[in-house]
Amino acid sequence: MGIKEMFSLARVPSILVLGVVYVAYVLIGGGVFWKVEGDLGQKDISVLLLNKKRLLTTYTCLNQDGLEAVAQVVHDASKVGLSLRGNYTTDGFWKFTSSAVFAATVVTTIGYGNISPSSTTGQIFCVFFAVFGIPLNMVVLNRVGKYMLVIERNVSDFLEGKTRRKCTRFFVHLVSYLSGAALFFIVPMIVFQQHEGWTYSQAIYYCFITLSTIGFGDYVADNNPDKEYPEWYSVLMASWIFFGLAWLALLINHSIDILERLNAHFKLQWGGQKPEDESGNAEGNNPNTQMEEEDEIKKPPITQ
């Protein structure tokens, strides 16, 4: 009995297969991070303990309590965006431009974690601001993404009408993907490398972590109190986040569509029948498909 016949007899629900693949993917990722970062983390701890011992040996007047007090001062200064180098002071995190970028990270759910409101009034306002801002952000990004998709389809239809080639749409999609990658990843990578002093790998890592709304907070642009940033830097960063999120959402939707088409293709190849959902409904009897068909505007019958 071949693999095709086994899948045809098993009739495994697609949601179960998808769940197994999802859990396996997460576990494999966790294992890779554990092996790659685990040993390095132990080495970092050993280096930190050695530096602590060397610091206490060098400054004999500093005991454990004094070291903890200094560490607390450094931690508090980093939380408010103050630099302890030199004798000059800065405005901290809560300037107007950085506050606007913080508001953008709230509604986009990036949430770096490097800056957060500390007052009760600010925390309460942040809750209500996010409650109304997150749905508004999703609606706006969805609309902008649809406009980008419409422009892309119009360009491909125009070129197909001129060239009369079926592969034109594929090349239009490819050019849009490459131009978006250059505009939202390559160009910001160069800008961040110049203004933040990061390596190119760190800059491209920050770009993806930001636009995917993961937002670890280990690298944050416009956040170093020891650097002087130009006035346009925060505005450019906020614009990059907004349009980059719209483009990445469009790209993710295309990827989901490709995965669904591959899923349907493998069902046809292995099962020898129309794709079925977990309830055993064929593709033509899918309740979701029926709902979509009912939502469409019915055309009047054509009389001969």
UniProtKB/TrEMBL annotation:
Single GO molecular function: outward rectifier potassium channel activity
Localization in the cell: Membrane
Keywords associated with the record: Ion channel, Ion transport, Membrane, Potassium, Transmembrane, Transmembrane helix, Transport
One matching Pfam family: Ion_trans_2
A single cellular component GO annotation: plasma membrane
Positions of transmembrane segments: 12-34, 92-112, 124-141, 170-191, 203-220, 232-252
Domain Potassium channel: 90-148, 174-260
GO annotation, biological process: stabilization of membrane potential
Major localization listed first in the record, in broad terms: membrane
Region (Disordered) location: 272-304
Domain of life: Eukaryota
Protein name from the UniProt record: Potassium channel, subfamily K, member 17
Gene source species: Seriola lalandi dorsalis
Organismal lineage: Eukaryota, Metazoa, Chordata, Craniata, Vertebrata
